[in-house]
């Protein structure tokens, strides 16, 4: 390699300098979607980027999903996975599987990967962080229906998370909540759990890692990525059906988070190596940023 080419490599670090300076000591909430967790080698790469962020002075807090893994575990147990209004119908048998898959398997797996790269990480079951209230879902006829042990996070216990941040440890949190009255576990949509915690922590950034490059004008064409959208544009895209399915809870919670003190929200593809670092430390970014 020529000397010029070697010198050019440093330009990457120099491009990152203003970002490194302005994000030092700031907290970022990273939501790792289940759809970006199908290939363990790619997940490992994201965890390495999170360790990098922590070493660079950012405080990453991770909330993970695992919808696909839960559906697979339910199938193995002979249970059918049903969703109403985007929420999983969670029977008493299903909540055990949800809990086991999220807090017993995915969560320790992510902690192990972070540790593997020399990071400090601590798994926290969502039921020790989120206080929840049961919710109903709205079916296609517009009726409210009981969907079992499903809840929304109405509050967060931040002590353990603050201890982690203070001790340079990455908290890794599963999307479950302890029901307000009974303390029993509730299944919470991970996008909504992430946004609730992002609001409480007033994070500088909330980053959703999923299986698409960002918000697309045409869902089947990655070249139609929309690099930046604001609230009126997001509402227009929801109205005309461009934003649908699993993207709806993300955009709803993104807008909610922005109006409650979160600095900026980003949607990126968790399967693209280094998407997290590229979005945060480069001028052009790689996904969609949501601004107010
Ligand atoms: N306009 C859009 N742009 C990109 N993805 C969209 C859009 N509308 C709907 N989606 C869907 O949202 C999905 C991501 O949501 P979801 O499957 O719930 O992911 P996760 O497990 O990361 O939460 C994408 O795979 C895509 O099919
Ligand atoms: C109530 C509800 O639907 N909970 C979700 C929790 C996991 C999740 O949200 O995972 P993703 O981020 O991968 O979608 C579920 O059971 O699938």
From TrEMBL:
Its EC number is 2.7.2.8. It is found in: Cytoplasm. The record marks 31, 250 as: Transition state stabilizer. It catalyses: N-acetyl-L-glutamate + ATP = N-acetyl-L-glutamyl 5-phosphate + ADP. One of its GO terms (molecular function) is acetylglutamate kinase activity. Catalyzes the ATP-dependent phosphorylation of N-acetyl-L-glutamate. This is Acetylglutamate kinase. It comes from Oceaniferula flava.
């Amino acid at each position: 390699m020529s000397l010029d080419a070697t010198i050019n490599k440093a330009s990457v670090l120099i491009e990152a300098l203003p970002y490194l300076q302005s994000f030092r000591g700031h907290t970022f909430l990273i939501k790792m979607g289940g759809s970006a967790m199908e290939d363990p080698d790619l997940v490992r790469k994201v965890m390495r980027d999170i360790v990098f962020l922590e070493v660079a002075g950012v405080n990453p807090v991770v909330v993970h999903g695992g919808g696909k893994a839960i559906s697979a575990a339910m199938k193995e147990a002979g249970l059918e996975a049903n969703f109403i209004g985007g929420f999983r119908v969670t029977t008493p048998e299903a909540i055990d599987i949800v809990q086991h898959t999220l807090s017993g398997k995915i969560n320790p797996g992510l902690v192990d990967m972070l540790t593997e790269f020399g990071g400090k990480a601590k798994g926290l079951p969502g039921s020790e962080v989120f206080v929840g209230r049961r919710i109903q879902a709205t079916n296609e006829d517009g009726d409210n229906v009981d969907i079992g042990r499903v809840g929304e996070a109405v509050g967060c216990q931040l002590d353990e998370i603050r201890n982690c941040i203070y001790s340079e440890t990455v908290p890794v949190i599963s999307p479950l909540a302890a029901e307000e009255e009974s303390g029993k576990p509730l299944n919470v949509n991970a996008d909504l759990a992430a946004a609730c915690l992002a609001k409480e922590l007033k994070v500088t950034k909330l980053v959703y890692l999923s299986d698409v490059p960002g918000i697309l004008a045409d869902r089947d064409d990655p070249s139609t990525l929309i690099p930046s959208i604001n609230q009126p544009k997001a509402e227009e895209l929801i109205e005309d059906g461009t934003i649908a399915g699993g993207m709806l809870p993300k955009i709803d919670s993104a807008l909610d988070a922005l109006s409650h003190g979160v600095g900026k929200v980003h949607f990126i593809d968790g399967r693209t190596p280094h998407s997290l670092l590229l979005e945060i430390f480069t001028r052009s970014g790689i996904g969609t940023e949501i601004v107010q």
